[in-house]
Amino acid sequence: MKTILERFLAYTQFDTQSAEDAGKTPSTDKQLIFARFLADELREEGLEDVELDDEGYIYATLPANGKPEAPVIGFISHYDTSPDCSGANIKPRIVENYDGTDIVLDAQAGIVTDVATFPELKRHIGEDLVVTDGHTLLGADDKAGIAEIVQAMVYLQQHPEIKHGKIRIAFNPDEEIGLGAHKFNVEKFGCEWGYTMDGGEVGELEYECFNAAAAKFTITGVSVHTGYAKGKMINAGRIAAELVSRIPTTDLPETTEGYEGFYHLLSIEGSCEQATLSFIIRDHDARKFHERKRFMEQLAEELNAQYGEDVVRLELRDQYRNMREMVEPVPHVIDMAIKAMEKAGVSPRVQAIRGGTDGAQLSFRGLPCPNIFAGGLNFHGPHEFLPVPSLEKAMNVVVNLCELAGRFND
Asked: Phi, psi (5° rounding) for residue 33?
């Protein structure tokens, strides 16, 4: 049997970066290369009903070996990686028995994961850490989650003394661009509730997330020779800079924490003739979220009043909602996750996600689906790392959840 670490490292060798505004599912063809590999692996590992649909969604079953009346539960992870950082040619390295000092990723390029900037490293002294070479992300978000789920299914097959009901697993593309659950077939999945293995630090348990929207501004300018520009030129690039300057600096990801929402500029490009800006909008509170969207609309209105009608065009698109209202009515889903963590020797930390998860959309489609830690830290960048013990503990939590659900009605 492969170790869970070997499984994860194999997954990192596939570039599965998703892409905004591709207009197809999955958003990149390279995601399907990994999806085919993963579906074949599930069959080889003895899973049943393995299906890979045309849009990259993978479903599979571990049949019950216990009471047939046990509730069917499911586990979900996404296999795409973030567009924020390259996922090609990942070169993972194991730092054995981490000693608490700075980690040099690329000495020649001067790329270092330093403890002063990343103090969370100190919590993992004495552990083996998987790190990058400083030029790509690692992909623990969320290939760690996939490895944990697959390894748990293999473990349960090899330990038939652990009785469980029917278990469903699913892996999907495009979570990082907010589209992971859009074409997820909840009815086909057929579960009473589920868990996404997509959290960060060991012990995290989340059933609150942001309300989320995307905002895209398109600014149309008028290009005129600079010598004759007075009263005629409308510089789209300069208007774009002005728009960014009107975003409160107190409401940015780098200046907020906890339940504080924000506006985040994803990209900006342009010239005198045309400019585009893409933002994401986030807030846990529904009323404040609505106010944030209205603020963006007002920005467009004010700039159009200043520079001319239809100079600035705004497209607003809701992405997902806070899943708390859908999970709280079924408290046993959370209680069971807490018990599974405690049985695995993990101290649960219930907290709100400063981000999103496919479970948010799935919860509103009738599948209550809180989020459990996958173990990685510093996602979406070259300083991402994964403590190996966290990977193993998350796998044990999945096993424990299967066992607990198998005797749910006892």
From this structure: -60, -45
Half-sphere exposure in the Cβ direction for 7 (13 Å, CA): 25
Token output for 159: 């330990």
pLDDT at 35 over 80: yes
**Residue whose entry in the numeric block shows the structure tokens 């469903």:** 168
Average pLDDT over residues 396-410: 94
Average pLDDT in the 127-136 region?
A: 98
Region 175-183 average pLDDT: 90
Q: pLDDT tier at 1 (50, 70, 90 boundaries)?
A: confident
CB atoms < 10 A from the CB of 409, how many?
10
User: What tokens does 119 get?
Assistant: 């103090």
Q: What is the pLDDT of residue 355?
A: 77
Give me the helix-helix angle, 140-158 and 29-44, nearest 10°.
Answer: 10
Average pLDDT, whole number, for the chain? Answer: 95
Cα distances from 386 to residues 33, 159, 178, in angstroms, run 24, 27, 23
| Close Cβ partners of 371 (under 8 Å, ≥ 6 residues apart) | 195, 196, 197, 198, 199, 204, 205, 206, 207, 209, 353, 357, 359
* Bridge pairing between strands 204-208 and 349-352: parallel
Q: What strands, in cross-sheet order, belong to the sheet with 48-52? A: 48-52, 58-62, 167-172, 73-78, 193-199, 371-373, 204-208, 349-352
State the catalytic residues.
80, 175
**Cα–chain-centroid distance for residue 189?**
20
